[in-house]
Amino acid sequence: MCAKLWGTMSTLSVNFKSTVAALLIGVGNFLPAAGFAEVGTERSDDLIRQLAEAPDADAARSLEREIELEWSKSGSVSMDFLLKRGRDALAVNDFGLAIDHLTALTDHAPDFAEGWHTLAMAYFNADMVGPTMYALERTLALNPDHFGALRGLGAVFDQIGDPARAYDAYDKALSIRPFDKEVEEARDRLTAHSRGTTL
Which of 15, 16, 170, 193 could make an SS bond with 163 (beta carbons 3.0 to 4.6 A apart)? Predict the structure, then answer.
């Protein structure tokens, strides 16, 4: 259940493995690192504001698609191509090839948050837990509003039995991306187990 909470971008259809090892215990708090925050485009910032205030699920889904398109633009044709190749490999469960393409992408475009997020998904599918968490940390340092990465972070913490951090990640995702029934149910389930901590 927790693994499926890591929602992929709407253009992907990836089934995540449910096994997450206890290697994650002791990982940092995932605070956005000073100096790493990516400045969003004016359009994406406006769309995020609209998403948080969406009147219904249909409006939210439409805004999410626009946001995902904005986030997928690296500003480089070659980097966009590497992202596409990585996503294509993920879609056919070729995680090794996906990691190859996406590692090349993050090596050449280290400030491109979507590259890190997609790499995190590839690592997670390949059971590479430490690299998954590092890639999620980089994603959120560059784009603290990345609701996909927050969902992923919540799902991982949920599975390893860290309800306080899972609750906070889910709660933050919902503050950015409302009308996410699965995340809302997961957060509500954890309410009795956690007072929440600060991400």
Answer: 193
